[in-house]
Amino acid sequence: MEAKKLSEDPAPAYQLSLRIRHPSINPVEISQGLEIEPEHAFQAGDARRSGGRAPPSVHTESYWLGILKPRAVLPDISFPGNERSQVAQARLTETMRSLTWALSLSASRVLSVHAGLLRRIRAEGGQVTLLVAISESEATSFSLAPEASRLFGELGITVEFELGD
Question: Which entry of 4, 13, 112, 136 is 20 to 30 Å from 60 by CA?
Fold first, then answer.
């Protein structure tokens, strides 16, 4: 029996994204600091895309949005021919689908590792938000561990939940 590949697993019922707004920071600095490529980013002073007849203008703040991938840290603990290790890998993979687990991991690993950068962004007048998009049809419940809640609070991170289909 072969171990399952992560790419064969169904997508989780949630998506975690980090959104950062700042008066002037270069989004490249955020990407390098967090080691995450943004889905969308622009710097204060960059020209806005204008559609049609709108007069040209510039962005008044820097903006950065990147997707957090807590499943990317999943170790492969299975060994070919070892059924127990494959069962353990399957259980670990199932746990990874849990929003509760993802929120805790994001707080403990992703955000705490980069706490210095996140604190600096806040100290300079920026805002950091963890966006949690949940598919109503897939996710039934979740909880937020006290340690994760405390860390989000200490880092000044707003947690925003979006329920959708």
Answer: 112
